[in-house]
Amino acid sequence: MTTFAVRYTYDERADVRDTVRPEHRAWLAQQADAGALLGSGPFTDGDPGALLVFRATDEAALRPLLAQDPFAREGLVAATEVRVWDVVLGPWATTV
Questions:
Q1: What is the pTM of this model?
Q2: SS3 at position 34
Q3: Quick one: which of 33, 32, 29, 25 has its CA closest to 70?
Q4: Three-class SS of residue 9?
Q5: According to the model, what pLDDT value does residue 94 have?
Q6: What's the pLDDT at 46?
Q7: CB of 3 within 8 A of CB of 36?
Q8: Backbone phi and psi for residue 45, each to the nearest 5 degrees, phi listed first
């Protein structure tokens, strides 16, 4: 499995994000329970957005999963940056 760092940049509709957030977080919890999501959370400064860390077989498998996110479905994610992340230390590392 490959680890991916996913950066969301949100649009400016904070009111809509607030409405959809419970469904978004429930979806994230499902992904964590399934072992696909290692961690996620919003940035607390700068432009609105979040960092999500996923494990997937490849980016082609990850992209459709991200499209299921209620924030993405509602058009709240203005940009998505997906990068392969080589985690070499810490609890998410896959090699010793």
A1: 0.92
A2: coil
A3: 25
A4: strand
A5: 74
A6: 92
A7: no
A8: -140, 165
Burial of 76 from C-beta contacts in 10 A (0-12 / 13-18 / 19+): buried
Q: Do 38 and 3 contact (CB within 8 A), yes or no? A: yes
Contacts with 79 (C-beta within 8 Å, 6 or more apart), sequence order:
7, 8, 9
Tokens representing 74?
């509602």
**Residue 64 parent element (H or E):** helix 59-67
Closest residue by Cα to residue 22 from 68, 64, 71: 71
Maximum Cα interatomic distance, the chain, rounded to a whole number of Å:
44
Could you tell me which of 87, 92, 75 has the C-alpha nearest to residue 8?
75
> Could you tell me if residue 46 is left (phi over 0), alpha (psi between -120 and 50 degrees) or otherwise beta?
left
Copy the structure tokens of residue 57.
């077989």
Q: Which residues of the chain have pLDDT under 50?
A: none
The pair of three-digit structure tokens given for residue 15, joined into one six-digit string: 């009111």
